[in-house]
Design a protein that fits this description.
The chain is α/β, with parallel strands linked by helices and 830 residues long. It has a domain at 542-548 and 592-829: Rossmann fold (3-Layer(aba) Sandwich), CATH 3.40.50.1110. Helices cover 59% and strands 6% of the residues. The protein is built from 35 helices and eleven strands. It has a five-stranded parallel sheet, with helices on both faces. Strands 1-2 form a two-stranded antiparallel sheet. It has a two-stranded antiparallel sheet with strand order 3-4. Strand 8, helix 33 (765-778) and strand 9 (781-784) form a beta-alpha-beta unit. Helix 2 crosses helix 3, helix 10 packs across helix 16 (381-406) and helix 14 packs antiparallel against helix 15 (345-368). The longest helix has 39 residues, at 56-94. The relative contact order is 0.06.
Length: 830
């Protein structure tokens, strides 16, 4: 029953408003999630200020109006109309005065039609971005809704129905907890409203803290499977991989906390899941709403149907049903979020193993009972020690199982364990630091938790006045976060602390995901990471006119050899970001003659997409700008004309450039500029591994011998191949640089190694020093363009949030810096 037991209190309202204002500042300063979420938060907090003073009967309608306004704010009018319209159609079917089986049939037909639209079989005047949100609103909630209205006594409230499906925060969170319809209505103002509001703020702050911690883990602790080389790195990989779930728990806390601001006193979605002392305990804690949904809709109906045949049989069948359906429904969820239905061995192993473990624990509890308590439970020292050990064991096993679930393939997961082989086992550390650290933290936390009050899952909802201590603690956390996010504050801290804060203030890809993104980008393998990671979001935000669509439209052709591909001579097309015109020689450049005319100084540029000028007009790339500047301001008096041949191809790796050198030398340049980026050595191993797996012929004796020394072949999976090539990466790069420089100097051509920094300059500084030394030792003249982008914001230099290629301004800055570098070395070039 709803309870209006406290009126308007100006002092309490000001205290709540102060916390919300600070929370909004933190969301802005740390760029929590997206700009859309910032706008939605502003709408929600302003709506709360109005909602607070309204009589109870007007609060639910206002929440519905705010929810619809939030959809409009994010999607615009047209897409919002389609999203809401589809949703209202589904709700209308649920409310038809016909038999349940007929409504279910109609919903299946409507759902099939929407699924066809989601799959792209039929196109319409809406954005594809509405489907994940529409699916999030209805794919599971509609099952709960049908179940509850079928068993609910009395009429169903229209306002409550609309509020349930179009929940305000849902428009910014496709992965949304499965809120129970009955609980959603029952908990609306079921306790003191100021306590509900304060709980909501506390949970939103907790969610923000989870997201900041997620960034710390994601940016500084995560590893790629190929980086696992010993027990220490293995434990780091397993633990950090599982702790990425902090992002989901952070989202869920923010979502439910925001709903509290409008009186929905919903229970927790996650509760100390890292301190689970059994696998059943983990299942109950990790996603409480999902567990409750499965129990309500699948477990209990099956259990009570089979109970007459014995509780053990009923428990076994019902538990297996729950985990089997969970596997299928997660794939169903994946379809609405991403448009595909994965049923992989990883999913089967994860859910099958977890089902077996939970079933084993459940049978033990059935036999011996499960301890439940509503108050404070005192544990003995032995019990606390036992709980600590059990928690460590469960956590590490869950991390191991989680790594299976999130792996890209069985071979990739299995290759992580190569270090256990006889040749490496002797070098492994007996007591890896990460294992000891994680175990001690978990053990101490679990032992301490054994002395704290334990609240039963069936415990009563919070009631009574707002506790002062948690409220002050929340305010203190908000003040600390808000202050830490202000540049004038964190810049005064020690450099290490300032850099740590700076690294988590804005979302970007981790080093491991950046590598995965670039490897997929350059190999035309748009493989995305699993489970709603930032890597997937980067792919999802890219426009349809991404360069891959142009490549597939005829820009490149396959060569069938180690080069793999080249641009098609004579190709010409208009794109939303510039004209792409390829000359008769296969270059995005003017149509030069094969040999230079007398008095002409000719250079050749080798590189990838940034050198090509991807995303800008042909005359705006730095090659064209530099050529024009050289002809306008000659650097020597012996040449009448300057020509630069742009031989760059989007997606080329360092090893491919060795073949391009041979082509470039046929045009008789006086200088050849090889444009290097970060991780040249690692990129070389990537390409050699990919070429070998693809069955492309390896044309150089050195590379063939290196493949043999690394013990890889065409059947070796990507992760294993990269790991086995990693010890040879610097040797491989030395060979590459020496080969290029020798070819140039053999024909009297000046080779220059030019470091082209990324837009996010400084992220790979350690690569620059090593690579430049290798290039200089090989015989290159080294030109470092670092600092070309100094004084300019990242967003002012890159093409888009999802694309770090330099825009026209970025190319102009590179051209100016390169011209200055040529002025400093006239004797080498002219």
């Amino acid at each position: 029953m709803n309870r209006e037991d406290s009126g308007v209190h100006p002092g309490k309202f000001v205290a709540l408003g102060l916390q919300l204002g600070l929370l909004l500042l933190v969301i802005r300063q740390f760029q929590i999630e997206s700009s859309a979420f910032l706008r939605l938060s502003l709408l929600a907090f302003a709506g709360f200020a109005v909602h607070y003073f309204l009589p109870l009967r007007f609060r639910l309608p206002l929440f519905v109006l705010l929810s619809l306004a939030g959809i409009l704010l994010v999607f615009g009018f047209a897409n919002s109309a389609w999203l809401v319209g589809f949703g209202l159609l589904l709700i209308a079917i649920c409310r038809l005065p016909i038999a349940l089986r007929l409504r279910v049939l109609l919903l299946l037909v409507a759902g099939g039609g929407l699924a066809a639209l989601r799959s792209g079989w039929l196109e319409g005047p809406w954005s594809a971005a509405i489907w994940p949100i529409l699916g999030s609103m209805f794919m599971f909630r509609i099952l709960v809704y049908l179940y509850d209205i079928e068993h609910e006594k009395g009429p169903t409230s229209t306002w409550r129905t609309l509020a349930y499906f179009f929940m305000l925060p849902n428009v910014c969170f496709p992965l949304f907890p499965v809120v129970d319809y009955k609980t959603f209505g029952r908990t609306h103002y079921d306790a003191d409203r100021h306590r509900i509001y304060q709980t909501g703020i506390e949970w939103m702050v907790r969610g923000v803290v989870h997201l900041v911690l997620y960034r710390v883990v994601y940016y500084h602790l995560t590893l790629a499977p190929s980086d696992v080389i010993d027990p220490d790195s293995l434990v780091r990989f397993l633990v950090s991989n599982f702790l990425l779930y902090l992002r989901i728990s952070g989202h869920f806390h923010i979502i439910v906390g925001m709903l509290h601001l409008f009186g929905f006193n919903l229970p927790e979605t996650n509760r100390l899941y890292c301190l689970s002392s059994s696998f059943t305990d983990f299942w109950r804690r990790i996603n409480i709403y999902w567990k409750d949904f499965m129990m309500k809709v699948f477990y209990y109906p099956m259990y009570f149907r089979l109970r007459k045949s014995g509780p053990t049989r009923a428990l076994v069948v019902s538990t297996l049903l729950v985990f089997g359906v969970t596997w299928l429904l997660h794939s169903y969820q994946w379809f609405w979020l991403r448009g595909s239905v994965p049923l992989t061995w990883q999913d089967g192993v994860f859910w099958g193993t977890l089902a077996a473990l939970v079933l084993f624990n459940s049978l033990r509890e059935l036999k011996h009972g499960r301890q439940r308590s509503l108050g404070t439970t005192t544990f003995s020292v032995a019990q606390r020690l036992s709980r600590g050990l059990a928690t460590v064991g469960v956590f590490l096993f869950i991390c191991l199982l989680w790594s299976v679930w999130t792996s890209q393939s069985f071979s990739a997961w299995f290759s992580m364990w190569d270090f256990l082989g006889p040749s490496r086992a002797a070098q492994a550390r007996l007591f890896p630091g990460y294992f000891i650290g994680v175990s001690l933290v978990l053990f101490a936390s679990a032992a301490l938790y054994g002395r704290l009050p334990v609240r039963s899952e069936e415990g009563p909802a919070a009631s009574g006045p707002v506790p002062l201590r948690p409220a002050l603690g929340t305010l203190a956390v908000l003040v600390a976060l808000a202050a830490a996010g202000i540049p004038a504050v964190y810049k005064r801290l020690p450099t290490s602390a300032a850099n740590a804060i700076l690294s988590v203030r804005k979302a970007h890809l981790s080093r491991a995901d950046t590598a995965a993104f670039e490897r997929g980008y350059y190999e035309n393998l748009t493989r995305v990471d699993r489970f709603n990671s930032q890597l997937w979001e980067i792919y999802m935000r890219r426009p349809v006119f991404h360069w891959l669509s142009v490549e597939s439209g005829g820009l490149v052709r396959l060569t069938g050899d180690f080069l793999e591909k080249e641009m098609v001579p004579g190709f010409n097309t208009e794109t939303p970001f510039g004209t792409i015109s390829v000359n008769r020689w296969g270059m995005r450049d003017l149509d030069y003659e094969r040999l230079p005319e007398p008095g002409t100084y000719r250079m050749a540029f080798l590189g990838a997409s940034s050198v090509l000028g991807w995303g800008v007009e042909q005359h705006e790339n730095f090659e064209s700008l530099l050529e024009a500047k050289l002809n306008a301001t000659p650097l020597d008096s012996t040449h009448d004309r300057y020509e630069i041949l742009n031989m760059a191809v989007a997606g080329y790796f360092p090893l491919q450039q060795l073949l391009v050198v041979d082509k470039a030398l046929t045009f008789e340049p006086q200088a050849l500029l090889y444009f290097a980026t970060d991780r040249e050595a690692l990129r070389s191993t990537w390409y050699l591994s990919a070429a070998l797996r693809a069955g492309r012929p390896i044309p150089y004796d050195y590379l063939q011998k290196l493949i043999g020394r690394a013990r890889i072949d065409t059947a070796t999976d990507e992760t294993t191949a990269i790991k086995r090539l990693e010890p040879f990466k610097d040797e491989l790069l030395d060979w590459l640089y020496q080969s290029i420089a020798a070819r140039c100097r053999g024909q009297g051509v000046q080779p220059a190694w030019v470091f082209l920094p990324s837009i996010r300059e400084g992220r790979w500084a350690e690569d620059l020093a090593r690579q430049s030394q290798q290039a200089e030792a090989a015989g290159f003249l080294v030109l470092d363009l670092s600092g070309a982008f100094d004084g300019h914001a990242v967003d002012a230099l890159r093409l888009a949030e999802w694309d770090n290629h330099p825009n026209a301004l970025g190319h102009r800055l590179v051209a100016e810096r390169l011209f200055a570098m040529l002025q400093q070395h006239p004797q080498a070039f002219f």
